[in-house]
Amino acid sequence: MADITNRIAERELSSEKTDMRSEVRLFGGISVLAGIMIGSGIFYIGAIVLQRSGMSLGLALLVWLVGGLVTLLSGICYAELGAMMPKSGGVYLYLREAYGERLAFMCGFANFTLGNSGSIAALAVAFAAALSSMVPLDEWTQKSIAVGLVVLLTAVNIRGIKAGSTVQSIFLVLKMLPIVLILFAGLFMGTESPDLFAMPAETPSLMNILSMVGFAVIATLWAYEGWTNLNVIGEEIRNPKRNIPLSIIISIVGVALLYVLFNYAVYRVIPFDAIQQMVASGNYYLGTAAAEKLFGSAGMIVVGSAMVLAIFSSLNGCIMAFPRMYYAMARDGAFFKSLGHLHPQWKTPVNAILASSAVSICLILFRSLSELTSLVAVCGMIFHGMSFYAVIVLRKKYPTMERPYKVWLYPFTVLLICAIMIALIVNTVVNDPVTAALSFIVPLLGLGIYEVLFKKNRERVVAELGYD
User: Fold this and answer.
1) In this predicted model, what pLDDT tens digit does every residue of 77-93 receive, in sequence order?
2) What's 333-388 look like in SS3?
3) In which region does residue 198 sit, left (phi positive, over 0), alpha (psi from -120 to 50) or beta (all else)?
4) Cβ(252)–Cβ(230) below 8 Å
5) Residue 86 in contact with residue 244, Cβ under 8 Å?
6) Residue 40 burial (CB < 10 Å; 0-12/13-18/19+)?
7) pLDDT, averaged across the chain
8) DSSP labels for 280-334?
9) CA-to-CA distance for 148 and 334, rounded, in angstroms?
10) 458: helix, strand or coil
11) 3-state helix, strand, coil in the chain (%, to 5)
12) Is the pLDDT confidence value at 129 over 90?
């Protein structure tokens, strides 16, 4: 009986049939990922990485490469899962199939209430703050702009996945123009000759260097964040068995090269002594300083434009992708039924998009936004780690399912990424145990809500589908 139900599930999960419109092509998929990944952090995270690398320029660039490799190894796990199951939902879907509905719901509920919604709210607030750096705005004007932007992009994405994807592609190109301008100007106009072979001043032991690199890699992972979001819109990607893996790999490799070259261009422009003084004083905006040195007073306009466009693009990508998880939950009978409704004309999960935006707007107006979003940090790493391990679980559960793309060096790659996630979780728990403990409250609350409100409905849907 179990074998029969598994075969039924395999056919359902691997099918590309959908009521949604599959209108996102390869470049659209790359735009979604790169658009979310490349944010305003490109101008300041490099300084944090350099600081954690003992102010060694060469070691810092190596750290960016290692962070890119870690992200790529994580991405190929999602490439296998996404090509195998081209459905809406992303991590929720993988957790559901590997571990069951309860754990998947805990993940989805935490993202709906804080994680994803908090990311949208934070980006909207950051957009308004970036505007305020050029044209001074008071706090409530910034909040009004943030709310208005969420409303605007919600309206755009309700109009169809093609509309949202087109906006994403346009703004990816627009935001890359000032970034690439700074990069090439730095590489070819910079007069500094950075010493990439100088080690940290105190010449630590090999173990200390490895520890230093690990700590610095964590900072780069924040810069690479966002690579998971293409899988959430799997049903709306044209030829997903080809384009999901290609989009993930091209995006991660391309962004990694961009980060390495951009930071090297900064080193070509700013003298090392000046970099040391900036970092020591807490001024991490090395990219901004490089633009000012290259273009004078116009440098602030270049950087300001890049930051505003980068945040806008990231926000649009999040508003596009995140609601598909709640739509998948509702379609399963594991969330409010109305969120599983598709717009009759535009074939978008209109109610899920509206609900996601409503929660995000509430968080924009909430004072302790940064505290709220930090509470789910540990659980986010746990859920991602479990989704990576799902590659192994699902190969055993669905051994005959078509896998158009397979993880390189399986199972070593999967186990390595899972070990890295465990190390990051332990590091967070040791350094911030209170936040780590509190971060489990929302998922556990979600478990209680599932048992009370959604368990029976989910069981009914499973019975109608004919498998568990």
Assistant:
1) 999 999 999 998 999 99
2) CCCCHHHHCCCCCCCCCHHHHHHHHHHHHHHHHCCCHHHHHHCCHHHHHHHHHHHH
3) beta
4) no
5) yes
6) buried
7) 87
8) HTT---HHHHHHHHHHTTHHHHHHHHHHHHHHHHHHHHHHHHTHHHHHHHHHTTS
9) 31
10) helix
11) 80, 0, 20
12) no
pLDDT of 174-188, one tens digit each?
989 999 999 999 999
The answer to whether 340 and 355 are in contact (CB under 8 A) is no
| pLDDT 10s digits, 396-424 | 999 999 999 999 999 999 999 999 888 87
The answer, as to whether pTM is greater than 0.70, is: yes
Residues listed for the chain: 468
State the amino acid at position 124 in one-letter form. Answer: A
Non-local CB neighbours of 188 within 8 Å, separated by 6+ positions: none
What is the spatial distance between Cα 35 and Cα 315, in angstroms, rounded to a whole number?
9
pLDDT of residue 386 exceeding 90, the answer is: yes
CA 184 to chain centre: 27
Check if the beta carbon of residue 77 is closer than 8 Å to that of residue 388: yes
Distance between CA atoms of residues 96 and 89, nearest Å = 10
Query: In 3-state terms, what secondary structure has residue 273?
Result: helix
Distance of alpha carbon 426 from alpha carbon 432, whole angstroms = 10
Q: Which residue has the higher pLDDT, 141 or 431?
A: 141
Helix ranges (H only) for 38-115 are: 45-52, 57-84, 91-99, 101-110
Query: DSSP letter at 135?
Result: S
Q: Where are the beta strands (DSSP E) in 171-308?
A: none
